[in-house]
Amino acid sequence: MSEKKRHNEGYFTYADTVRTAKLDIKAKALLWFYAYTFNWTKGKPSYYTQEQICAYVGFSPSTYQKVKKYLIDLDWIKTSKASYDAPVFVTPSIGKDDENYELRSWAKGHKSNKMSLEEQIDCLPPELRDPFYLTLGYEKQILTENTSEK
Q: Which of 7, 15, 98, 114 gives the lowest tally of CB atoms within 10 Å of its CB?
């Protein structure tokens, strides 16, 4: 276990970056695989064949090629390959968010699209926002409004 931890010192920081990135879930799955198999201490790339990667990640070869291209285009991975049968050498990097991410129905749940707690509190009416609302002289105003409505 200590050997694995030593080789993946930067993995957890990178995994959190991937988790919050605005990317398709298939891209995140492949990127997590690459990050997990990358040697963070020595900077050695992940090196698996397409067949192995498809088996581990659960992709068909065509899905793998499509997702790999997506990650390359967004600069999330750097690749090199010596020959057709050779493993693909992949180095994960920090790329760009997908420009079309916001168009997806599930994008509204991303933390960047949520209001902060402070913003949520600011949207509340004063009597719910301020815990001392009734103790600051507002109780007369509320009582007056309640009696005039009757």
A: 114
- CA dist 60 and 71 (Å) reads 16
Give pLDDT, residue 6.
40
> Domains of the chain by range and CATH?
2-97 (1.10.10.10)
d(CA 93, CA 52): 21
Closest CA to 36 of 65, 20, 57: 57
Rounded CA gap, 25 and 53, in Å?
16
Residues of the chain with pLDDT under 50: 1-3, 5-7
Dihedral of alpha carbons 44, 45, 49, 52, sign: positive
Q: Which helix (H) or strand (E) holds 111?
A: none
Q: Which two tokens stand for residue 78?
A: 């750097």
Angstrom CA distances, 57 to 5, 25, 36, 85, 96, stand at 22, 12, 12, 19, 22
| pLDDT tens per residue, range 20-54 | 888 989 999 999 999 989 888 888 888 888 899 99
